[in-house]
Design brief:
Strand 17 and strand 18 form a beta hairpin. The protein contains 15 helices and 18 strands. By secondary structure, the chain is α+β, with helices and mostly antiparallel strands. It folds into 3 domains: 120 residues, Beta Complex (Beta-clip-like); 97 residues, no CATH class; 211 residues, no CATH class. Helix 11 packs antiparallel against helix 12 and helix 11 crosses helix 15. InterPro entries: SET_dom_sf, SETD3_SETD6_MTase.
């Protein structure tokens, strides 16, 4: 990809144009060449028939990329030692400069195209990313403003350039064994193919070079695409966010993240947020066995309050400041929400806390389903294609993501309903409700569990659901 000064934009070169540069730079291609795959753009193709079974048990090397071409943190720091201008910029950026920041990622979608994502978990992720990129760009300009480099490039550097840098790295970075997150030219030509359909793997050899190796028991015909995996466990949202595409044959959203908010009328809202030490939300994962797994310790902060024995105290620090300390049943809480989860798990009322959590999670899933469903007819009716401002590819990707996330949310709702009914029959829940209601014969039900919740807001949320 090169910058076109006249058009003030970016031009995409064909994959084959990389070959002369690669060969001059010492990249060795072994029976593979840059090319184009139908419907997938640039690709890595086999130039002859390959088989991992014909090399007497040895690994079949497909490509070797010299270590000096690998854009890693180590390489960045090495270059800073010999390039004064680069060192000035890097030092000005501080810790931000220690991390590496044309794929058509959602950060390049038009406003009309982004509207197609409303109700999906990708919508807030893109919005947050764009705000973050704007802050990063402003920090870059401010931090490097006194360097000679910035004086040369300032008239040619704009926010779109930073968007391009982010997209290039996010869509091309690999988690390389022995190297970490990095960009490796030529190997990143290989497209994604998950599971058993992955043709090749990448490793670091004894000299620090990057090598692409044919997987065991794989056979490739001449002209066939050689693929790697970008991560088999990545969910639909992450694939579209980081790589700009969804596999046409994808059957599940795999995983998605839903945010959680401590209600405004929770007296301990500020204190809980200060001690949480984890992301404010939870992750849903398709377990592939008809069930749903979930994780996220933040939920436990929504399930207990003062009546349960949760309290907070401010303490003075040695430098005269203040810090928040949390206690649960007179035992100091360490580790934030994770520590609270550990304490609740040892409590005789564990089933009660689990039931509260499941009710809140199910309500959050229901709310997300409502937003998706309420927008669906309008999204489906949107005109797209040439002259509409909404490209066919972006429309199709958005519709596929909406369908996959709706199916996973619907499955999660049903699974939470099953768990909720099972927990409602727990002897622990029964005894707890009997004690709360002053009756030893009270049978557990949803409304009873709602009445026994830890805070006024929690009660309201669960009552609305029931």
């Amino acid at each position: 990809m090169i910058r076109d000064g006249k058009a003030a934009g970016w031009l995409q070169l064909p994959a084959e144009a990389l070959l002369p540069w690669a060969m001059l730079s010492g990249v060795a291609f072994h029976s593979v060449v840059p090319g184009t795959a139908v419907g997938r753009g640039g690709a890595l193709l086999a130039s002859e028939e390959l088989s991992s079974c014909t090399d007497h048990g040895a690994s079949v090397a497909l490509m070797t990329v010299p270590r000096d071409l690998i854009l890693s943190l180590e390489r960045v720091l090495e270059h800073a030692k010999v390039d004064k201008d680069f060192r000035e910029v890097l030092n000005g950026l501080g810790e931000f400069g220690r991390a590496l920041p044309l794929e058509l990622l959602p950060t390049f979608w038009t406003l009309n195209e982004l509207q197609l994502l409303v109700g999906t978990t990708l919508a807030p992720a893109v919005s947050s990313k764009l705000r973050s990129l704007q802050r990063e760009y402003e920090m870059l300009c401010q931090s490097a403003s006194q360097t000679r480099w910035y004086g040369v490039v300032r008239d040619h550097l704009d926010f779109d350039d930073w968007l391009q840098v982010d997209a290039m790295y996010r869509s091309r970075a690999l988690d390389f064994p022995g190297i970490g997150h990095c960009m490796v030219p030529c190997i990143d030509l290989a497209n994604h193919s998950p599971g058993e359909s992955t043709i090749a793997i990448y490793e670091k050899d004894d000299d620090g070079n990057a090598v692409l190796i044919l997987r065991d028991d794989k056979t490739v015909t001449e002209g066939e695409e050689v693929t790697i995996t970008y991560g088999d466990a990545k969910g639909a949202c992450e694939m579209l966010f980081s790589y700009g595409f969804l596999e046409p044959d994808r059957l599940s959203a795999e995983t998605l993240f839903l945010s959680l908010t401590i209600p405004d009328n929770d007296y301990y809202k500020s204190a809980k947020s200060q001690v949480a030490e984890c992301a404010p939300g939870f992750k849903l994962v398709d377990a592939r066995d008809g069930g749903i797994e979930w994780s996220g310790e933040f939920i436990w902060l929504l399930c207990v309050g003062e009546d349960d024995g949760l309290r907070f105290e401010l303490a003075k620090t040695v430098d005269g400041g203040e810090e928040m300390h949390a206690f649960f049943r007179d035992q100091e809480l360490t580790g934030g929400a994770v520590g609270l989860y550990d304490m609740l798990g040892k409590s005789e009322l564990w089933d009660v806390y689990r039931l509260r959590a499941i009710a809140v999670l199910q309500q959050r899933v229901f709310d997300q389903l409502q937003v998706l469903y309420s927008m669906q007819d309008g999204v489906e009716a949107v005109s797209h294609g040439e002259g509409t401002g909404i490209r066919d590819g972006q429309y199709e990707q958005a519709m596929q993501l909406r369908r996959l996330e709706f199916e996973l949310l619907e499955q999660a709702y049903e699974d939470f309903e099953r768990q909720k009914l099972e927990l409602a029959q727990s002897e622990v829940v029964g005894r707890y409700l009997a004690q709360v209601n002053g009756s030893s014969t009270h049978a557990p039900d949803e409304e009873g569990v709602v009445a026994a919740s830890a805070s006024d807001e929690q009660e309201a949320a669960e009552e609305d659901f029931s």
